[in-house]
Amino acid sequence: MVAVNRNRFLKRTLAGVASLAVLAGVLGTGAASAQSAPQGAIVIPDDVKIFGNDNPNVRKATAVVNGDVITGTDVDQRLALILAANQNELSEEDQKRLRLQVLRNLIDETLQIQEAEANEVEVAQAEIDQSYARVAAQNFDQDTSAMDAYLKRIGSSAESLKRQIRGEMSWQRLLQRNIAPFINVSEDEVNETIQRLEASKGTEEYRIGEIYLAAPAEAREQVYNNASQIVQQIREGGSFVAYARQYSQASTAAVGGDLGWIRLAQLPTELATVAREMQPGQLVGPVEVPGGFDILYLIDKRQVLTADPRDAILSLKQISITFPKGTTEAQAGQRAEDFAKTIQSAKGCGNVEEVAATIGAQVVTNDQVKARDLPAQIQSAILQLSPGESLPPFGSLEDGVRMLMLCGRDDPQSSSGPNFDQLMAQMEDERINKRAQMYLRDLRRDAVIEYN
């Protein structure tokens, strides 16, 4: 689902619990036992005996959802996007597990599109094409024709990605029409939340990425294995955002699993316990939660309503040199050392260009660099500099060597937190997504799905 606001509370689209047939007479529980159970209860005897060899967890990657066909090609093309984005090769067994997860996601997507159509919610093809063009430009740095060729080359297709875009846009518009108008947040509720924020000033907030996989009881082990495989692939260099967009069944999948800034009290106990011990950049999971498994990635953390030095705006000059083809490691090391001595001889930012010119170095200036956006290994070091000082050289034989010189710094003011309107929007968004969970759960429950 396309998120209304990136800064959101924890929201997930819980998978519906699969129906279980209770064969009371066959399994020996007796009619009286079944009748004495509370209305709606599922009764499962202790001495379960399975008749037949059909394993409900073994599916071919095709299904018919309320008459709409999901083919093996549909699944393969979605899987190809993940494989290409992460440049990872999966074993045949791993791909089988991941195909099953993709199939579940495609089923949900199909249900969302069908429900939008049933409610006469339309998404024009021109809008889908515009969104596709933005994806091509922003994420792939290419025009749509190049994007089409790229997708075909990796075994996917433009149609597959456009269908995903259509599903997200259709579902979002359906929620905005059928749910959002009936969601109300009172001024008193917002004011109470603002007071709680003020009372918690100085406590820590966490920006967390989440991949949520629903796990009905009969598929628990299989989903756990899928989640473990995803964790392994991300740790081997895979993109958390790419996996979240493709596999997560939380509503935050559309924004790469980003939950925004939250406090641990807003998380389920199982996740809060884990997140409390995490450090920025750490990946943990799978963590079992009611209804499924979570994979958590701690993007960052900060203190509530407290200025963070990493939000300082820096004025930097980057001085760089490249190495001629054929330069050896020893030669590069010596030249980098000479380069550093030369730049450190400059009297601050005022004449660094003049000094750099004597050794053929290039200088680039940027007055709007947020310290938080710099690589973690550079952040703390550059915040210790005074104007005119520079970091030690860094780089590689292929890319050359560069130095960063601090020319100025605007420290952040103490944060006042979200204003009234922002907080109200966040609270409304949370309630919309809770209703969306129930909506999709009901669609799954009532769906007629045939597996081939």
UniProtKB/TrEMBL annotation:
Under PROSITE patterns, the record lists: PPIC_PPIASE_2 (PS50198), TAT (PS51318)
The organism's superkingdom is given as Bacteria
Q: Does the keyword Cell membrane apply?
A: no
The entry's keywords = Chaperone, Isomerase, Periplasm, Rotamase, Signal
One GO MF term, please?
isomerase activity
Record keyword ATP-binding present: no
Signal sequence bounds: 1-34
Q: Which residues form the PpiC domain?
A: 203-300
**Gene3D superfamilies named in the record:** 3.10.50.40, Porin chaperone SurA, peptide-binding domain
List, alphabetically, the SUPFAM superfamilies matched: FKBP-like, Triger factor/SurA peptide-binding domain-like
The record ties this protein, via InterPro entries, to:
OMP_Chaperone_SurA, PPIase_dom_sf, PPIase_PpiC, SurA_N, TAT_signal, Trigger_fact/SurA_dom_sf
Q: Identify the PANTHER family for this entry.
A: CHAPERONE SURA
Q: What is this protein called?
A: Parvulin-like PPIase
The organism's taxonomic lineage, starting at the top? Bacteria, Pseudomonadati, Pseudomonadota, Alphaproteobacteria, Sphingomonadales
